[in-house]
Amino acid sequence: MPLEGEYEPSPAAWVRDQVEAYESSGGKRGNTLLETGLPVVIVTARGKKSGKVRKFPLMRVEHDGEYALVASKGGAPEHPVWYRNLVADPDAVTIQDGPAPFDVHVTEVSGDERSEWWERAVAAYPPYAEYQTKTDRLIPVLVARRRG
To answer: What is the model's pTM?
Structure first.
């Protein structure tokens, strides 16, 4: 079920354009990261401070119907804003991987589970390994599982 509330598009034009293309085509357009050809999903969450609905593409890292959401921010020293939004309200999240979004519950994973998901993430998007070398923080991995 779509999140209720006011949608505030990303300030980044490429993110706004990709979300619009993906959603308006049921995932037939805007479904890869720029020119890489690597697949993405659209994640929708509620802003922790604003309460507004936010949407953003993330690399598609799927395994047995579950999805890794990797908070890499390209190896920046701080977590992406969306990470804090998902941790603050892990049930106010949807993923669109194809024609329609579905509700998920998000959990940050650690230990062996994180290691397994990290391997899957790097296999799906090899630059994640480089991003980890660029930062002192352990890049968080969250797993999204369907609700209902």
So the answer is: 0.96
